Every structure is written in structure tokens, then in C-alpha cells.
Amino acid sequence: MTDSAAPAAAPAAAPPAHTTVCISGGGPAGMMLGLLLARAGIRVTVLEKHKDFFRDFRGDTIHTSTLELMRELGLLEAFLRLPHQKAYRLGGRFGSDDVTIGEFKYLPTPCKFVAFMPQWDFLDFLQRQAACYPAFDLRMQTKATGLLRSQNAASPGRVSGVAYRTADGSKGELTADLVVACDGRDSTLRHQSGLPVVDLGAPLDVLWFRLPRMANDPHDLLGRIDRGQALVLIDRGDYWQCAYLIPKGGLAGLQARGLPSLRAAIAHIAPFAGARLEAALPDWDALKLLSVQVNRLHRWHAPGLLCIGDAAHAMSPVGGVGINLAIQDAVATANILYPALLQAQDQGVPIIDAMLEEVQARREKPTRLLQAFQLRVQDFLYSRVFAAGAAPVRAPVLLRLVSRIPLLRGLLPRLVALGPRREHIVTPEMRAAS
Ligand SMILES: Cc1cc2nc3c(=O)[nH]c(=O)nc-3n(C[C@H](O)[C@H](O)[C@H](O)COP(=O)(O)OP(=O)(O)OC[C@H]3O[C@@H](n4cnc5c(N)ncnc54)[C@H](O)[C@@H]3O)c2cc1C
User: Fold this and answer.
1) What pTM did the predictor assign?
2) Which of 19, 78, 122, 175 is 20 to 30 Å from the Cα of 224, by its Cα?
């Protein structure tokens, strides 16, 4: 954690008995939604099961769409004062072909880069901003364990809150006008809701690890593919954050062949790093497995409950779009629901479930589009890298074309860094910070 990061909120007294919006999960979706709603004067309680925001290899990509939102909130300057790295170019090496797949300078926004910032710094930042508003209540070490259902004859079975458990094992119940599940791809609440999940499949898993970075190393974001291997290197200042792609379920096979064999394979596609691998990968604990999932809910909501972010659609790490998509969901949710939530809070008017459908209708298309893109890239990687085995590879013709034509180098950054159907902050700042 950097010096600029405030400690995460300490567990305090038990959560209130009732709130306007209960959010389960203090990840990017939950914290952004909590900030926007509290800023608009809506009482919100965020339940987060961990004691802090520390997550390693959870994705540190802050895309331009999120930077733009920070600018709209008047927070960009403060945000960019936090330690981060900037990527201006997406490069790839296929065999011996070096290609530039994208350049962020063509983005039609003031921030012409993607930032990489530890996710815990980003979440701490959102927490500090949200804590300025009295309507914001964050409960760390509080796990949402189940959904409460209304016994009311007018709306039987409607979700009316959550059951939770705190670190000391105490159990409690929190009722709410609306529950938003932001508890990620293994969401407890989505599971309990019984909403059916459409699994889109993922032929790959990813091994994450760190590698010290030297002054003479290449710059920017790099992808390297050759002879049955694929590695993505993200420049994180004094180290590389590395993602080594393996076929789904392939870790046991790699382990059987031994770590020296893995180090040799990595050194083959990133020769500049070869001498550092022994120290960087002393044992298997230095590698963290991401079991890639791509799925989405058929329906993102049930009466009284809305799922957003990974809880509604688990994303592959391809393009590093998961965090930013979750944040876009949060912004759309706040934009669409805040008038109704204020009415519920101030006048007791129940939330109309059709409004939850509006959120899905707004966010489903961009999600489908990005997932379709991720599936294409995954299939491409699978066929070019694993199915092709040790055969030499060349960059696909399309990528060679993109690399040669400057304007085409702006297309991919537009899709991943800005994303389809970009959201803007519409929610007002109703009750200023005390
Ligand atoms: C290893 C890994 C690497 C990734 N790399 C990238 C990347 O490079 N770039 C990128 O953009 N995306 C990446 N992703 C995806 C990205 O992390 C997610 O898409 C994004 O974080 C989704 O945000 P979210 O807020 O919806 O869910 P999450 O970030 O998953 O947050 C969910 C939160 O809910 C909490 N929680 C879970 N269950 C409960 C409960 N029952 N009660 C209370 N709290 C609960 C969790 O502790 C967590 O804080 C990666 C994901 C993983 C797992």
C-alpha cells in the first residue's frame, strides 16, 4: 500500500437496521456506486468481507473511460497524484514480427493513456472520496451471507435486504429499499437469487507473476507470442507484471514438467528477462493462477435486487476491461436509479422493478460486445498459441495492416480504453461534504 493510501475503514458498530441501498462487495463496482449514491444524498451501506482492499494481481488497469469519470467528478488531478504508470502504446511480437496494435494518442479525450495503479490504491481513493459524504457507510469484514425476502402480502418474496456476518462471527440483518450485488464473479447473492448464468467458456487460464524491470528493458505494454507460448508484460515501473497464458486446466501439466522447464519457456519468448527468472520464480508460490471465466446473467435483476459488475458478467482479463466495465455499470446504475432512490428514501415510494431492467438494457449491449471481443481474442490465442504447438508464428495480416496505418492504430484503444456506450456522471452532488 502506498503512503498516500488511507487505512481501510475499521469495523465499527453493527450496521444500521435499514438503509436505502445495500451494496454487497467493495470492489470497483461497489465502491464507485457507493460514492455516487452517497454524493447524491442517498443512504448507502457497502458490506465488504475483507478487512482491507489489498488484492494482488486483481487487475490494476485504469482505462481512459474511468479517468474521464474522475475528471467529470473533479477528482482527476488528485487521482493522478497517486503512484501509477502510464501506457501509451500496445505492442506485440509474434515470432519475429514486431507490431504496434494500438496507440492511445488517437483517443478523443484529454487523457491519452491507460494508467496502471494497484487496485487497493484505487479503492482506497474511492473510499476516501465517499467518506466525505455522511450518507456513505462502509462495513469492512462484513460478509453478505444471504438475501432477505419480504413477507409482505403486497410483494411476497421480494428481496428486502441481506443477512450478514461480521469478523467476530456475529450475525445480523440489514433491510434496504434496494440490494445491489457487487460481490464479484463468485457472488454469494447472485447464487442465492437463482438467476440463471450463461457460461460463455474460456479455453485459457493465466499465471500471474512479477519480474524485476531494468532500465534497458523495452517500454509500454507488450504481448509476446511464439512457438506455443504467450506472455503479456505490463510495465509497472520497477517491475513487470507478467501474465503467462496456459490452456485451461494446464497448471498440473506444467507442474509435472517442473519449474526449470517453465522458466526456460518464458525465457524463450522474453529473452531479455531470462537471467532474472530464477530469482523471480524461486517456487510455484511466486505464480498466481487466474482461472479465467467468461459468463453473464440472462437477467441481471429480481424484484428488489440488481447485479452489476462481475456479479452480472465475469470478464476475461483480455483487454483489462473488467474493472472499467464494472465502473461503467455503477455509473449507469446511479444515473438511472437515483431519482427513484431519493423518492424511496424521502417519501417511501417503492422502487419500480422496471427501472432495474433499464439498467440491464443500458449495460448489456456493451457487455456482450466486449465479451464477444474477448472470446474472439481467446480463440485466436488458443488456435495460434496452443493448437499450433511449437510451429513458428507470424503476426496476422490484419494486425500487420493496423501496425502500418496510423489511424487504424486508434481503433483498438477506442474499444478497450473508452469502451462502447461510455457513461457520464449525471448524478448531482446533493449534500456537500461536512
Ligand atoms: C486474478 C485476476 C486478475 C485480473 N486482471 C484484470 C486486469 O488486469 N484488468 C481488469 O480490468 N480486470 C482484471 N480482472 C477482472 C477484474 O478484477 C474484475 O472484472 C473487476 O474487479 C470487477 O469488479 P467488481 O467490483 O464487479 O468485482 P470484484 O472486483 O470482484 O469485487 C468484489 C468485491 O466483493 C467482495 N465480496 C465478495 N463476496 C462478498 C460477500 N459475500 N460479502 C461482502 N463482500 C463480498 C470481494 O472481497 C471484493 O472486494 C482480473 C480478475 C482477477 C480475478
Assistant:
1) 0.92
2) 122
